[in-house]
Structures are given as C-alpha cells and as structure tokens.
C-alpha cells in the first residue's frame, strides 16, 4: 500500500495593510510579520454587490524575512505561497491564546497598482 502525502499549502493574492514588522533575535536571525488583505466580492439576495475583506497574518523567517524587509511596503499587492501554522500559548494571565498564521515560503510582486 502506498501512503499519500498530505499537503498544507496556502496561495493568496492580496495587499499589505502596513509595512512589515521586523524582529531581530540575538543570534542575528530575523523574522518579519505583516497582515495581508484579500477581498471577496459577492452578490447578495437583493442583487446588490458586497465586498468583504479578510486579513491574514503572515510570518517570514531567515532569508525570506530579509527579502520581505528589503522589498515589501504597505499597499503593495503580492502573490504568496506558504503553509498554514496554528499556534497556542498561555498569556501572562494564564489564559490560552490561539493564532493562525501563514508561514511564508515565497512571494512575488504583482506590479498592479491600488485602485
């Protein structure tokens, strides 16, 4: 019996909501974080059109973080590929917190202007 590989892959086209936040660690490694907005336009029952924006938290590490720091800025539209990562931790009050992030693997500028 051949076991199939399961895939965790995210592909998005969206715009950065702010400049990336760069974190530097003591071992000279960097991490970059940014929020990416995607839009969905749909038709309501009354025939009107509505746009819904969703925000995705994106994290880059290592060499990819260095590229993000040099290239990406607020408002730019990019295509990205990565994988979905779910994390949990206890905050300073002992409450469990959860987050869902996209671990960035590669990205491309789309060169389309904001409308």
Structural commentary:
It is a single chain. Strands 1-3-4-6-5 form a five-stranded mixed barrel. Helix content is 9%, strand content 57%. It is globular. The chain is built from one helix and six strands, in the order E-E-E-E-H-E-E. The longest helix is centred in the middle third of the chain and has 10 residues, at 62-71. A hairpin with a 5-residue loop joins strand 5 and strand 6. The protein has one helix at residues 62-71; strands at residues 10-16, 21-24, 30-43, 49-61, 77-90, 96-109. The N and C termini lie far apart (52 Å). The protein has 115 residues and is mainly beta.
- General shape: globular
Instruction: Tell me the major beta sheet.
Output: 5 strands, mixed, barrel
User: Helical proportion?
Assistant: under 10%
Spatial order of the strands in the main sheet? 1-3-4-6-5
Regions with pLDDT < 50 over 5+ consecutive residues? none
β-strand percent reads: over 45%
Oligomer: single chain
Q: How would you classify the helix and strand content by structural class?
A: mainly beta
- How many alpha or pi helices? 1
Distance between the termini: 52 Å
Radius of gyration, in Å, reads 17 Å
* Record field, number of beta strands: 6
- Average pLDDT, all residues: 92
| SSE string, helices as H and strands as E | EEEEHEE
Spell out the key features of this protein.
single chain; 115 residues; mainly beta; five-stranded mixed barrel; 1 helix; 6 strands
């Amino acid at each position: 019996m051949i076991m199939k590989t399961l895939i965790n892959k995210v592909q998005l086209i969206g715009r950065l909501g702010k400049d990336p936040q760069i974190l530097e660690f003591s071992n000279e490694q960097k991490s970059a974080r940014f929020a990416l907005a995607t839009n969905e336009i749909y038709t309501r029952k009354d025939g009107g059109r509505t746009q819904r924006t969703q925000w995705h938290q994106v994290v880059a590490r290592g060499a990819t973080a260095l590229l993000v720091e040099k290239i990406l800025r607020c408002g730019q539209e990019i295509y990205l590929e990565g994988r979905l990562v779910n994390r949990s931790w206890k905050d300073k009050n002992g409450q469990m917190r959860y987050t869902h992030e996209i671990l960035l693997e590669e990205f491309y500028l789309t060169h389309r202007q904001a409308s």
